[in-house]
């Protein structure tokens, strides 16, 4: 990655971007299904996709959720010498945290753990951190250290280090979370990683973009400092944010076969790489699933796997543009549980455009103009 710095020095006045490959690993749900434990897990730790979008933010706490279908993670390093961790790049939160060697929970035993004593650049912050999940929590403490993302070294970055973690975390491939939302959302007043990248001039443009591969385990990428034209076709639709806290935009309506089935008159949605599904209010999601031929079963909306090719498109109308999700994109197939749609109940008026949406649309997060850019992913 030293080439990154050489390239930036040579072309200081032009585009300088840094790419972090994302791996698409086995999800917690897939692991549990293989072990025959999914039904027990689902009942014990019900999915609450709106947990991290609570309106109240207390110092030292942050809301998260137990999304068993998250699949994408990238590698960062912390400390000197560097210690590597798998993290979810999450546009729906703002803090960075990883497990620590002081964590005795079963969940931590399945993950890489940071050892502050072996890093010459670590400083203890002296404050505690509590992250509330849909069920359970993570507790720990805060510190400062060098965080390296795609070859970019962010010095004195505040990080959370877990001492206890909720049991469901043991089934997740990722070790921790790297939040990419706005600093106003950050717990304990911690400056997010990307904000420090901008402040230190490590990126040439105050934006990052996300490409999620639909099929292969490799190919997905987060690009810091710009846009990669290799991952989209056509023009970019720029959508102004309606709230500069999350990456929140206004959706005009949702249609199936030209008929409005949800979001009539407009609704608010968050473009969130840290949520696997497209999530909305229960009545709206039920209506969409009904229109595409899905039947509710044990918390999922199931369809006949043989009907995917004939299932109708679901179209999100945003800022005067149509963003269409075909059946092949919104249906997920499991060898153990058949086919289910990627539309999930949220129990709130807020929508989440998660990975099901982002796999179809290359997503650009522009902090300079406070906009989201969407273009057809290739």
TrEMBL record:
Active site residues according to the UniProt entry = 90, 272
User: In this UniProt entry, which cysteines form S-S bonds?
Assistant: 103-108, 263-267, 305-339
Q: Which residues form the signal peptide?
A: 1-16
Pfam families documented for this protein: A1_Propeptide (PF07966), Asp (PF00026)
EC number annotated for this UniProt entry: 3.4.23.1
**Keywords on record:** Aspartyl protease, Digestion, Disulfide bond, Hydrolase, Protease, Signal
Residue span(s) of domain Peptidase A1 = 72-375
Organism domain of life: Eukaryota
Q: Which PANTHER family match?
A: BETA-SITE APP-CLEAVING ENZYME, ISOFORM A-RELATED (PTHR47966), PEPSIN A-3-RELATED (PTHR47966:SF22)
This molecule's function is given as: Shows particularly broad specificity; although bonds involving phenylalanine and leucine are preferred, many others are also cleaved to some extent.
Family as reported in the entry's similarity comment: Belongs to the peptidase A1 family.
Please identify the protein, giving its name as recorded. pepsin A
């Amino acid at each position: 990655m030293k080439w990154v710095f050489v390239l930036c020095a040579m072309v200081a006045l032009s585009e300088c971007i840094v790419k972090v490959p994302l791996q698409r690993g086995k999800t917690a749900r897939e692991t549990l299904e293989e072990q025959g434990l999914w039904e027990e897990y689902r009942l014990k730790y019900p999915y609450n996709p709106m947990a991290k979008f609570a309106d109240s933010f207390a110092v030292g706490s942050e809301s998260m959720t137990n999304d068993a279908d998250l699949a994408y993670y990238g590698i960062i390093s912390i400390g000197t010498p560097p210690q590597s961790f798998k993290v979810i790049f999450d546009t729906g939160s703002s803090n960075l945290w990883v497990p620590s060697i002081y964590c005795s929970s079963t969940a931590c035993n399945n993950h890489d753990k940071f050892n502050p004593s072996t890093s010459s650049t670590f400083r203890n912050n002296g404050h505690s951190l509590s992250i509330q999940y849909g069920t359970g929590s993570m507790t720990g403490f805060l510190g400062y250290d060098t965080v390296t993302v795609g070859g970019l070294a962010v010095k004195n970055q505040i990080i959370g280090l877990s001492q206890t973690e909720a049991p469901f975390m043991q089934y997740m491939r990722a070790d921790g979370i790297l939040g990419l939302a706005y600093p106003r959302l950050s717990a304990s007043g911690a400056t997010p990683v990307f904000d420090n990248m901008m402040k230190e001039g490590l990126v040439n443009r105050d934006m990052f973009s996300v490409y999620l591969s639909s099929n292969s385990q490799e190919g997905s990428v987060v690009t810091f400092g710009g846009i990669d034209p290799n991952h989209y076709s056509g023009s970019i639709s720029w959508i102004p944010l309606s709230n500069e806290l999350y990456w929140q935009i206004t959706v005009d309506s949702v249609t199936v076969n030209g008929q409005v089935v949800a979001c009539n008159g407009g609704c608010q949605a968050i473009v969130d790489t840290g949520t696997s599904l497209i999530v909305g209010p229960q009545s709206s999601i039920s209506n969409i699933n009904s229109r595409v031929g899905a039947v509710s079963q044990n918390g999922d909306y199931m369809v006949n796997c043989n009907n995917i090719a004939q299932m109708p498109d679901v179209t999100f109308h945003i800022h005067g543009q149509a963003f269409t999700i075909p059946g092949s994109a919104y249906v997920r197939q499991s060898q153990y549980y058949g086919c289910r749609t990627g539309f999930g109940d949220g129990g709130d008026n807020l929508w989440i455009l998660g990975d099901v949406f982002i796999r179809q649309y290359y997503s650009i997060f522009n902090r300079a103009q406070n906009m989201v850019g969407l273009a057809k992913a290739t």
